[in-house]
Amino acid sequence: MLDKLRPWADLTVTADAATVASAAADAEVILYSGLAGATPPFAAVWPHTGRRLRWVHSFEAGVDRLLIPELAAGNVAVSNAKGVYAEPLAEFTVFAILYFYKQGRRLVEQQRAHRWEQFEVESPRGKVLAIVGYGGIGRCCARAARKLGMRIEPISRQDTAAPARFHARLAAADVVLAAAPLTPQTRRLLDAAAFSAMKPSALVVNAGRGPVIDETALIAALRAGRIAGAALDVFEHEPLPADHPYWSMDNVLLSPHCTDRTVEPHWTALGMRCFLQNFRRYRNGEPLLTPVDKAAGY
């Protein structure tokens, strides 16, 4: 897909640190993705960039690993894959809610045991979904949840800045969705006090950034029965260590940060399409489609 740019740009595609350093010196545009695994941290790329650099685009929606202080403070434009992966994350959110409400783990265990044992299940209809981070992902999840008959309660930055109000909003929720970007203000926003404010029947879903949840506090809340369950696609440290408590917890549903990696349309094509649309606008002197507010961090 990048070949489409060759009439207008000299391309270097690499994850090799030495090649990146050499190419960055003359780069006007950098498309950065940490998904290649061996990609140098952007903090290691930045010192090699030169005065020609005008724009950095993140292949991912999250920019917390990209937006180093030097980039945030300068005049270089930053954009990201905002909203590109929202639909599959909304599907995961719906799946997670139904997994717990319809007792998916129990169904599988009974099938494996050849055991016919009827039981009652919950319905999402009428339940309250509180969404922490009502951006592209949050709004997409809201649309999907409304189709289940759920009531949506967006939680704003103003709510989270006032602990008493924030905890009151959490206390009214049946499901709490973390869809916020990772910033200094949102790091470990869902902490022990937040979990203590929730209903014992509450579910927590994280489809945003791992460190928005205080993992130690979440594990303690799940073990003590202060909340009912958690469905997690992202984690503070990835890959999740083999000895992490989550692996053996029956009230946790894990996805190895891949629930948005769709086969058709392929998730990499979706991400590249976003960059190409932005590149076309950049070349024409038009505003970028998915600009990042560097001061806000997303």
Describe it for me?
By secondary structure, this protein is α/β, with parallel strands linked by helices. It folds into two domains: about 1-85 and about 265-285, Rossmann fold, CATH 3.40.50; about 85-255, NAD(P)-binding Rossmann-like Domain (Rossmann fold, 3-Layer(aba) Sandwich), CATH 3.40.50. It is about 35% helix and about 10% strand. The chain has helices at about 15-25, 40-45, 70-75, 85-100, 105-110, 135-145, 155-160, 165-170, 190-195, 215-225, 265-285, and strands at about 30, 55-60, 75-80, 130, 150-155, 175-180, 205, 230, 250-255. A six-stranded parallel sheet has the order 5-4-6-7-8-9, with helices on both faces. The protein has a three-stranded parallel sheet with strand order 1-2-3, with no helix packed on it. Strand 1 (about 30), helix 2 (about 40-45) and strand 2 (about 55-60) form a beta-alpha-beta unit. Helix 4 (about 85-100) packs across helix 6. The longest helix is centred in the C-terminal third of the chain and has 17 residues, at about 265-285. The chain is elongated and about 65 Å long. The model has no long low-confidence stretch (mean pLDDT about 95).
Structural features:
298 residues, Rossmann fold, alpha/beta, 12% strand
Q: Which secondary-structure class do the elements indicate?
A: alpha/beta
What sequence of helices (H) and strands (E) makes up the elements?
A: HEHEHEHHEHEHHEHEHEEH
The overall pLDDT, averaged over residues, is: 96
CATH superfamily of the largest domain: NAD(P)-binding Rossmann-like Domain
Number of strands: 9
Q: Widest sheet: strand order?
A: 5-4-6-7-8-9
